[in-house]
Design a protein that fits this description.
alpha/beta; Nucleotidyltransferase, domain 5; 5-stranded mixed sheet; 5 strands
Length: about 200
């Protein structure tokens, strides 16, 4: 076995978890980044109002997603990239909730991904004053990056898990989970929600 996973990050248009407006995806194989992709998403109808708070955080505006694929038009592309991987995200409960809620809002069945939270991994791996993504990524050797750009955030998240696996001598996601006592969450398990990516 080897350290294989897909890191994922969503940005949202507003406080609705269904309001995905950007996704970033980073594929890791054998502990190395081998592919990455990111794109804008036109949020589902009824969840497509861009709140000033969110725009201030990520800089994405309604006009930026006007010609972007809708959730239903892009979900197959997302799933094709991630395959059957464990999805890794910083505060995975938020990102997996976006995936589920956007599917619910568009009448789609949510793909049954397992997930690992890089925030929980960072808390067990580093001693930091803050475990926010920029601080945790810096501890993992991933320096300055444009925080709240979904692709950059997914890349930072991937680096945290790669570094934690190296430090613990873990050969795969399940071994890392066991070494740190951080669970791999299975589909349908309750996860905490967060208002903004």
């Amino acid at each position: 076995m080897s350290l294989d996973f897909t890191a994922i990050d969503f940005e949202t248009a507003n406080s609705s978890p269904a309001s995905a407006c950007q996704v970033g995806l980073v594929r890791v194989r054998g502990g190395e980044v081998v592919a990455q992709a990111g794109w804008l998403i036109r949020p589902p109808s009824g969840h497509d109002d861009f709140q000033e708070w969110n725009v201030r955080i990520h800089g994405i505006r309604p006009e930026d997603v006007h010609d972007a694929d809708t959730w239903t038009e892009q979900i197959d592309r997302l799933c094709a990239f991630a395959g059957a991987d464990v999805l890794v995200a910083h505060n995975a409960g938020f990102d997996l909730n976006v995936l589920r809620r956007a599917c619910e809002a568009t009448g789609l069945a949510a793909p049954p991904y397992r997930s690992l939270c890089s925030l929980a991994v960072a808390r067990k791996t580093y001693r930091l004053e803050s475990y926010r993504l920029p601080k945790a990524a810096e501890a993992a050797g991933f320096g300055d990056f444009p925080h709240h750009d979904a692709l950059a955030d997914a890349r930072a998240c991937a680096q945290i898990v790669i570094d934690a696996a190296r430090r613990t001598g873990s050969s795969d996601v399940d071994a890392l989970s066991a070494a740190l006592g951080v669970p791999v969450v299975h589909p349908g398990a309750p996860v905490p929600e967060r208002a903004v990516a």
